[in-house]
Amino acid sequence: MMGFPHTLHLLIIFSVLIVSASSSTLTTTHPGQILNLPILSFDEGYSHLFGDDNLVILRDGRAVHLSLDAKTGSGFVSQDLYLHGFFSASIKLPSDYTAGVVVAFYMSNGDIFEKNHDELDFEFLGNIRGKEWRIQTNVYGNGSSSSGREERYSLWFDPSEDYHQYSILWTHHHIIFYVDNVPIREVLRTESMGGEYPSKPMSLYATIWDGSTWATNGGRYKVNYKYAPYTAKFSELILHGCAVDPIEQSSSPQCDTNKLDKLSLSKAQRVEMAKFRTKHITYSYCYDRVRYPLPLPECTIDPSEAERLRGFDPVTFGGGRRHHHRHGKRGRSIGGSRIISSSTTTTTI
């Protein structure tokens, strides 16, 4: 009888550990793990886009380094177009002084649909020494670049110290952006969004380029090539989607994304996403009353999120008047070439 309380105590601890492990699985599992998707070598899924020797393939094609120097940036692109799918890479960003440097991991069809392109962006914005990288996501559909759907966040880690995984799930019903398996943003396909939900086949791109005119404090801090080359390292590349013929714009009869379409965020994952947004979101187009006096139709306003952002920037997110033009001025940069940038990026000074 003396040992019973001790045994019961051990059983309780064991049960708690099991529950904790199950919870952890729920909050860290992404579609790539659920579907057991393969990691491709570079030659199996990608092609050199630009940058000559600034693109280096390592580890038998399992890793790619993209560099930016005074001569050029660099990039690669998927060999196929995809209509929906799951796309992921582990990325380690350049360190030290990185102001003006932009690393992008994104999907686009701007080379095919110049006036009504679609786009899904991860953009990583460098900074001066001692300041953290920022991460930005964006969504364009049917050429809706005049209605940028940007969100910007800080991160809970230094992305230049180690590799971290960045993933995009794109289905008929929703788009989810993940960082290290944590969902940070979900875009639902709604009737109000209409044709501005991305719905045409896209290629996957990865690039590094000079965004001096806008990327760091609205262009106040430029790329300093004294610190070049700036190198972004990519590995664990996943391309899983419905490959589409670029000429006929039709997918293979065998193409099946039903498993992806059925994926949704669990309650635990939604809690994880809410925690991330509470701590790390610094900009959302849905709350920007300078650009959009009335939110875009698909926006669902979260009062607590609105209050947090209003405290962060009362002019942009509170709709107050600007008394001096230098406060909260917004800058817009339009990339001149699909080779070096995603199409339109808005940044807050």
From TrEMBL:
Region (Disordered): 312-349
Main EC class the enzyme belongs to: transferase
Species of origin: Stephania cephalantha
Protein name as annotated: Xyloglucan endotransglucosylase/hydrolase
Compositionally biased region (Basic residues): 320-332
InterPro entries with a match to the protein in the record: Beta-glucanase-like (IPR000757), Beta-glucanase/XTH (IPR044791), ConA-like_dom_sf (IPR013320), XET_C (IPR010713), XTH (IPR016455)
GO terms for cellular component: apoplast
PTM remark: Contains at least one intrachain disulfide bond essential for its enzymatic activity.
Keywords, ordered alphabetically: Apoplast, Cell wall, Cell wall biogenesis/degradation, Disulfide bond, Glycosidase, Hydrolase, Secreted, Signal, Transferase
Signal peptide: 1-23
Domain annotation GH16: ranges: 21-234
This enzyme's EC code(s): 2.4.1.207
Domain of life the protein comes from: Eukaryota
Family according to the record: Belongs to the glycosyl hydrolase 16 family.
BP term (GO), one: cell wall biogenesis
